Amino acid sequence: MASRSHVDVNERRLRPIYDCLDNGNNRKAIQEADKVLKKQKDFQCAKVLKALALLRLGRQDESSVLLQEVHEQHPVDEPTLQAMSICYREVHKLEAIADMYENAYKARPDNEEVLSALFMAHVRLGNYKKQHQTAMALHKLRPQKNPYYFWAVMSNVMQAHSDSKLAKTMYLPLAERMTKKYIEEGKIDAEAAEVLLYLMVLELQEKWQEAVELLEGPLGERVVSELNQRATKLAELHCKLGNWEKANVLYRNLLKENPDHWKHWLKYLNTVFQLIDTGYAQPSCSKEGDGDRTDKVDCSLEEVMEFINQQTKQNKGGILLRGPYLAQMELVRILQERRSELLKLAGPPSELFQQYFELFGSKPCCAADLKMYFCLLTPEELQALIDKFTDSLELSDKSPTYASEPKHICRHITVLQLSRCAGVYARQSVEELLNVSKDLILRYRKGLEFGKDLLSTDLQPSDPYLLFAAYLLVDLWQRTGQERYLWQAVVQLELGVRRSPANFQFKLLLMRLYVEMDILYPIMWVALGIFWLPCAMFGTMLRFFSVNHKETTEYLLASYKYGSFGKIREFVDFREKLQRSFQYKSAATERLLLDLILETNSHTGTEQMLTYIEVDPSKERFVLSELSDNRDFSVMTCWDPPSQFRIRDQEMSFKEEIAWLHCRDLILRILVAAVMAGREATQSTRNGTAHGDSHQPDLTNGTNDAPNLAGMARVVRELLPRFVNHTDACSKEFADPRIYSLQGPFRTRLSAYLEGKHHILFARVVECFLIIYDLQDNGLSNPDNKDSEILKTPVTDILQTLVERSKCSLVKEEDGHASINVALFEHLVMSTESISYISTLMGVCSHLLKPLKAAWSKQTRKKKGQKAPEQPAVFDKFTALIEELQAAAKSLHHAATQFDPVFMALDLSALSLTESLTDTEEEKLCEKAVWSKVERSFQQSSHEICELLHNKLQYLHTCHI
């Protein structure tokens, strides 16, 4: 009773702290905790709650001291342990949670809650072996609770997931034996979780027959967590075993229940042709009137066609289902592919197309469905079919007859999409395409009448007209090279976004067109010279990936808790896929490079920045071959002909992205290693040693056959040839910019980087750093030392070339048409980045040379009657190199100002860079707004490039020795 009273007092004292934390009043929580600790100075829970409040106020150091103090005391009470878990999760110290509960378990081995929390701590860490051990300890503690036993089984499955070598020889057989033991002892609960886990173990071992027996037995009746789950799984297993007649029966019955399940149709047709190929036949196949039997096997083309027709007839009078009609076309496709003589029994494909259009032409999915089966028709048949569809609309392009209801609009749009997929518009002239686009814009505006009462979150029924017109204008731009067509598409899409702000297709295409013209848009910020906004964008991306790990962990805990074992591997696979995402690694690399060039204006600042950049340049940051491509280009509408849409776009783009990421990663690691090497060298010099040697450095002309290089300098020497070899390989494959389809990926900056020889410039400057670094051991170079020549000629020649290419105007004129000279933006930004990286390396070189020059001056101080020795050439050549870099940075700064329309007093809207399509007042106002946005984009790019170059000029000024 006294003990309970003590607990009540503690709870009452802690309640104000909990309330303050819940309300976000962390300062008040600290005050309340201090009040409690004055009365009970050893009150562990109060200390931890104070630590939590300190953590949320950003006082992490103070919080860590309190947590460490309590941690070393090995707390065992549940409130303290829970509060510490929250603290450790917020600072991502998951190992500390496991250690904390491990200590609590040793103190209280009979506490089920502590042991359960320890298991979940190992789940967070992904330590499957300790998961298994902890789950078995729980089972021994509470043998009557099945979940603990199956936690151990699932832990074995996850060990198999992480170790493919021992999966089928140890972990999976052990999981099977453990589960079978419980089944034989009759301990399986009424729920299906344990059965599904056993089924998973059998499938992972490819024991298909045992899995079938399990599902067909009494335990299989418990698999009812999803609709038709047992039948679907059985059908899949019979396909694995090659039991095509049983699989056919199961898929046939599943389709009778749900005729619109497309995957079941594909599997059903596969079983039919497998039966036909094997010559399967049985008496029941020839009987009439047995179509309703549940054990019916369809083993001939006639029976398949009869079954499909039965399913299509069921649609009459009810909701139309696309599945059976698409199955008819899929059947014809298979017969054509197999060159079957039975093809004539299925009828002409054009009739199937006509039937499908009549039924589903007013549905947005119609064009995409029919596009899959264009291969069934010859070009002539396809053109005749589209003409027939067009005539049925009774809409004329020459004298517009507008649609009378939204369904008519949708049917017309379906025909337009099919025409484009068939390549009709590719054969039309420029004038015809322009007229069609104007007509579609008029139809779009007329169709807005049907959407007057719609919400802002709804799409206008006529939106596809405008999207289609925009694609035609893009076609005209790509065909003629005249940018006015592209700007016309931009203006029309901007108008469309105003009327349908929820139409993401407008926004996707608009974004892509702005990117094509190098106008400010998030996806291309860095390439356009916008450096600060990407930091926030990359930070958001990185938080997404961090939160992904945290949230998927919580899903894993819930899956174990509720017995959803089948989801555990899915969550783990999803988490691992995101962790391997090249977008994740690319965002992390670009963010670090931006931090390195934006947050530093001197070498001291760069060294301070390294304390925040957690990069070990001696270790690989990721394995290129394991990175996954998580991009989805299908989200953007594509009505191009199948022959024009290159499926390999994404594969080739991914290869290019990986090459660019590798290049950027090597640049980052070389820069970080160089700065660290410079710090190592100066620290060892101050300590009276050279890179760990006991001798004083020879500052004049000493030589050393085997110089004792510091660790980070050795890393730079190892990384430089890798960088050179990689960029040489890229020059052979990615020298020319790749052009992808508009709905596909956008090219990287790799080709521009190689074309500008920025890789050669960077490599030469790294060599300069290594030469200067070697002076720490080899002594100062003689005036005639050829190695010092690299400090001038190759670097300055490339710099001069880059500067000359930057001296161009914002507006250019070709064939009487004025256009924006956007190609130079990428070149200017790339040159600015190169200057930034070189400045970092020059800062390290200056940091190394200053003490050498001071020591040389001290050793060669003039004495009476002696002539002062000539100063080593390296000092003068380094100073000349710094001056060349400053001159280049100033020239680039001047070039960047030429891209500011305000500075140059340019009014882009008055330059006749485009012309209105329909000449309405609304369109003119929108066009003016677009040019205003373009001007602001160029102005911001110019401002940020100039600001960064000014920053680097200050950086280079500090590098003088």
TrEMBL record:
Which InterPro entries did the record assign? Answer: NAA25_NatB_aux_su, TPR-like_helical_dom_sf, TPR_rpt
A Pfam match is TPR_6
What's an example GO cellular component term for this entry?
NatB complex
This protein's UniProt keywords: Membrane, Transmembrane, Transmembrane helix
Where along the chain is composition biased (Polar residues)? 697-706
Using the UniProt annotation, give all residue ranges assigned to the region (Disordered). 682-706
Instruction: Write out the transmembrane intervals.
Output: 519-542
User: Is Membrane among this UniProt entry's keywords?
Assistant: yes
Q: What is stated as this protein's family in its record?
A: Belongs to the MDM20/NAA25 family.
Name of the featured protein: N-terminal acetyltransferase B complex subunit NAA25 homolog
